[in-house]
């Protein structure tokens, strides 16, 4: 009965309800519209609301839209930047998980002196401006020979991501009693088996959310990457910055921007699927 | 088949002593209940035997081997947790087979033993369900099956019946008893319900505040409690102070009562006399000899049995009998007390 009622309710939205949904959609999708238009423009001069010349009208002069032609060519370094971004993001996520899982376990389960102070300090990297951290790190890293290296960038990316991850995982661990792990141990599971067969699967929704978030944060970090990459390591955000640094958003910059959003969108879709299936497989809650 | 021994086992959490020098010997194949009020240390004791908690002192022996330092995985014990701790992301089948698959048992053998075990606990039709889709009794059977399939040498259960309703509790009690006899596993279970302990266990260990108060067979525990606390916990109702006139005669507020002599309780001692309510005969006519006179002041009818409260002057005595007859309130009566069923306790 209740189910039927809900479906009936959701399929018959009032104009008001539709209006608010549209507003939300506008704010979320709106920013993409000029980008998409731009990337298909041939010429779009200020102060026109829409491009003066579209690519379609000039098809004889360009096979693909100009912007995309450039973006997809090796000169744009888009491919290189994408690989770098995904690579750095993945490594950062894995290291972040490896550090934060045990740390979150301790924070969630143990009592120790100075715990609340520790929890407070966890948030500090989020409060201190990124630029300050970046400059300070750069000075150290130049000395250590880490500037302009993957290692340097990965270490830098861990700074803003660890606090988020630890917080997320601590909350998840708090919801997971010790019983399950102890039961697994009694049944003969080794530490590694307990982690692999019981702890991780039970923490999975939280771990996926945390990993996704870390990856997205990492792929969007500009300032730290820019400082520490020294121009030698290009990621999508730094590439984009170099394109728009002149103060104009030209067609190729718009194209790159769209590319920049791709890893995130793909990841969102995957995780959405994944989490849904996971929740479904578990039956009803618990 | 494993004999379990606790030798002067202590457990301290920081400055707090949870278990104080407990000595316990559980024979191979025996079913023992740990009984006591909340917070007395039952779970802690169980966890130490399982290896989840390390004793602060003393030793735990399996078949005369000290296992105090042995990690959980190597003890080959089974434990059913109070809240079952079924893995929510695994089906019934996966849950039950868990212990075998982590030990690397060959697939074919796992399948055989799984089949056999699901049969024992009658869960075959639920094998593909997730724990969240089971009832309390079914979850508990899964938990038991998951433990038994590993053939543990010692089986432990922490309040296995606490989460079940009354009818199911009775069923599960019989089920556990049958299983235990069938497999002959040394079993230790925790409860704070004295009826449950007496019905299930071969011997009961009563624990108060981390001390072992008494370790005895159910009937001895019930009839001959070691002290007032145990008597009280075992639900004794009629305990009255008395002075010993002779080895077999106690002077109470309701008159002299013949008692069975107990070493250490001689003439002149001040004692407490425990009269079990079902061991008192309610007479409508005065017996030829003895008999404590009184008057029925209340009657509680339970169907099969009936409780009378009899006012005997200084004390009110409760009498329980089969409801074959009903005596009206206000009827004058005499209480005939079998001396063998009177138990003396130190004041
Ligand atoms: N990890 C711990 N740290 C500190 N104190 C503890 C810990 N575990 C148990 N205790 C204390 O030890 C005492 C015994 O606890 P235990 O869990 O064994 O009680 P119990 O007899 O099982 O009680 P219940 O019937 O309520 O389950 C309690 O006072 C409890 O607070
Ligand atoms: Mg307990």
TrEMBL record, chain A:
SUPFAM superfamilies: MetI-like. InterPro entries: MetI-like, MetI-like_sf. It comes from the Bacteria. Residues 82-271 form the ABC transmembrane type-1 domain. Keywords: Cell inner membrane, Cell membrane, Membrane, Transmembrane, Transmembrane helix, Transport. It is a multi-pass membrane protein. The chain crosses the membrane at residues 20-46, 86-108, 120-144, 150-173, 253-271. GO terms for biological process: transmembrane transport. GO terms for cellular component: plasma membrane. It is found in: Cell inner membrane; Cell membrane. Belongs to the binding-protein-dependent transport system permease family. This is Spermidine/putrescine transport system permease protein. It comes from Marinovum algicola.
From TrEMBL, chain B:
Keywords: ATP-binding, Nucleotide-binding, Transport. Belongs to the ABC transporter superfamily. GO terms for molecular function: ABC-type transporter activity; ATP binding; ATP hydrolysis activity. PROSITE patterns: ABC_TRANSPORTER_1, ABC_TRANSPORTER_2. InterPro entries: AAA+_ATPase, ABC_SmlMolc_Importer, ABC_transporter-like_ATP-bd, ABC_transporter-like_CS, Mo/tungstate-bd_C_term_dom, P-loop_NTPase, Transp-assoc_OB_typ2. One of its GO terms (cellular component) is ATP-binding cassette (ABC) transporter complex. It comes from Marinovum algicola. Pfam families: ABC_tran, TOBE_2. The keyword Manganese does not apply. Coiled coil: none annotated. Residues 4-234 form the ABC transporter domain. This is Spermidine/putrescine transport system ATP-binding protein.
């Amino acid at each position: 009965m209740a189910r039927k009622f809900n479906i009936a309710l959701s399929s018959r939205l009032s104009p008001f309800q539709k209006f608010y949904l549209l507003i939300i959609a506008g704010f979320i999708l709106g920013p993409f519209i000029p980008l998409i238009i731009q990337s298909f423009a041939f010429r779009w001069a200020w102060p026109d609301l829409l491009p003066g010349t579209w690519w379609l009208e000039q098809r004889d002069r360009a096979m693909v839209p100009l912007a995309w032609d450039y973006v997809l060519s090796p000169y744009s370094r888009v491919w290189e930047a994408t690989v770098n971004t995904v690579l750095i993001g993945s490594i950062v996520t894995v290291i972040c998980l490896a550090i934060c899982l045990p740390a979150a376990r301790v924070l969630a389960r143990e009592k120790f002196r100075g715990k609340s102070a520790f929890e407070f300090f966890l948030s500090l990297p989020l409060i201190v401006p990124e630029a300050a951290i970046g400059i300070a790190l750069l000075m150290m890293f130049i000395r250590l020979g880490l500037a302009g290296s993957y290692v340097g960038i990965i270490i830098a990316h861990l700074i803003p991501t660890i606090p988020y991850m630890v917080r997320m995982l601590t909350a998840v661990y708090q919801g997971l009693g010790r019983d399950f792990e102890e039961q697994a141990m009694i049944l003969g599971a080794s530490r590694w088996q307990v982690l692999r067969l019981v702890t991780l699967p039970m923490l999975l929704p939280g771990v996926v959310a945390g990993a996704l978030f870390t990856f997205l944060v990492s792929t969007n970090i500009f300032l730290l990457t820019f400082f520490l990459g020294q121009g030698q390591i290009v990621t999508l955000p730094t590439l984009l910055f170099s394109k728009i640094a002149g103060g104009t958003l030209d067609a190729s910059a718009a194209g790159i921007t769209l590319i920049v959003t791709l890893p995130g969108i793909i990841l969102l879709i995957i995780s959405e699927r994944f989490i849904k299936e996971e929740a479904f497989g578990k039956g009803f809650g618990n | 088949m494993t004999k379990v021994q606790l030798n002067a086992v202590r457990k301290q959490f920081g400055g707090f002593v949870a278990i104080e020098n407990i000595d316990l010997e559980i024979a191979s194949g025996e079913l023992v209940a740990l009984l006591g009020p909340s917070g007395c240390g039952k779970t802690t004791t169980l966890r130490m035997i399982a290896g989840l908690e390390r004793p602060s002192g003393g030793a735990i022996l399996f078949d005369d081997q000290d296992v105090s330092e042995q990690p959980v995985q190597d003890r080959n014990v089974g434990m059913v947790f109070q809240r079952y701790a079924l893995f929510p992301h695994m089906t019934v089948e996966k849950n039950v087979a868990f212990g075998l698959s982590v030990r690397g048992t060959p697939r074919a053998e796992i399948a055989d033993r799984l089949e056999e075990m699901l049969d024992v606990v009658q869960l075959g039709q639920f094998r593909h369900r997730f724990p969240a889709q089971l009832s309390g009794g079914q979850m508990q059977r899964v938990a038991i099956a998951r433990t038994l399939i590993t053939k543990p040498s010692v089986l432990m259960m922490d309040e296995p019946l606490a989460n079940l309703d009354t009818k199911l509790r009775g069923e599960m009690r019989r089920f556990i008893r049958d299983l235990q006899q069938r497999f002959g596993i040394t079993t230790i279970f925790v409860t704070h319900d004295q009826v449950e302990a007496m019905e299930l266990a071969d011997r009961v260990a009563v624990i108060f505040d981390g001390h072992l108060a008494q370790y005895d067979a159910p009937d001895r525990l019930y009839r001959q409690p070691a002290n007032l606390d145990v008597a009280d916990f075992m639900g004794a109702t009629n305990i009255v102070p008395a002075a010993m006139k002779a080895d077999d005669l106690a002077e109470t507020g309701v008159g002299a009562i013949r008692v069975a002599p107990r070493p250490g309780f001689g003439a002149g001692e001040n004692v407490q006399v425990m009269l079990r309510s079902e061991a008192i005969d309610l007479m409508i006519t005065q017996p030829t000899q003895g008999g404590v006179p009184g008057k029925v002041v209340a009657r509680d009818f339970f169907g099969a049995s009936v409780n009378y409260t009899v006012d005997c002057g200084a004390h009110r005595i409760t009498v329980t009998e089969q409801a074959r007859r009903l005596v009206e309130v206000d009827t004058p009566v005499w209480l005939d007390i079998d001396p063998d069923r009177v138990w003396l306790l130190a004041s």
